[in-house]
Design goal:
This protein is globular. The protein is α+β, with helices and mostly antiparallel strands. The strands form 2 sheets. The protein has a 4-stranded antiparallel sheet with strand order 1-2-6-5, with no helix packed on it. Helices cover 32% and strands 23% of the residues. It has one helix at residues 2-48, and strands at residues 58-63, 74-80, 99-103, 120-124, 127-130, 134-140.
Amino acid sequence: MEISNVKEETVVGIKELTDLVYLGEEYLNSFITLLLEETRADLLTSVVTLAHASSSEIKSVKQSKEYKLLKDFLYKIELQRGIENENDTQAYEPDVGDLIAITSVTPKCVDDLDQPERSYLVAYVESVKEREDHFKLLIPLSKPTLDI
């Protein structure tokens, strides 16, 4: 009789653990919508202030050979340092973790990014190295070519 009680307790313990894991996943998943909404609100705030955003000219773009697995998707970009744009706003000084829009023009409003003949990429700044006259950025992109 004791053996059957042990088995029953073990099965109950596993069921409770399974329920706990399910509740844990459910708990974590409940934050996804909130996180997406917060990210959307932050991006919208950035887009609304686009006319006053800092910008810099790209000096060069090269594929990175640092990571073998993602080499086609990693790019080294050199940004000109210290040049103000037409709106007399400060030049962009990158930080790790920034989301940047890589465009062929300096946008003055959101509509400038929403043109069929103009493309842009949103990129994440993975690393930054400061040089005297420029910054070197390492950015992963979602597609293997940078055609801008």
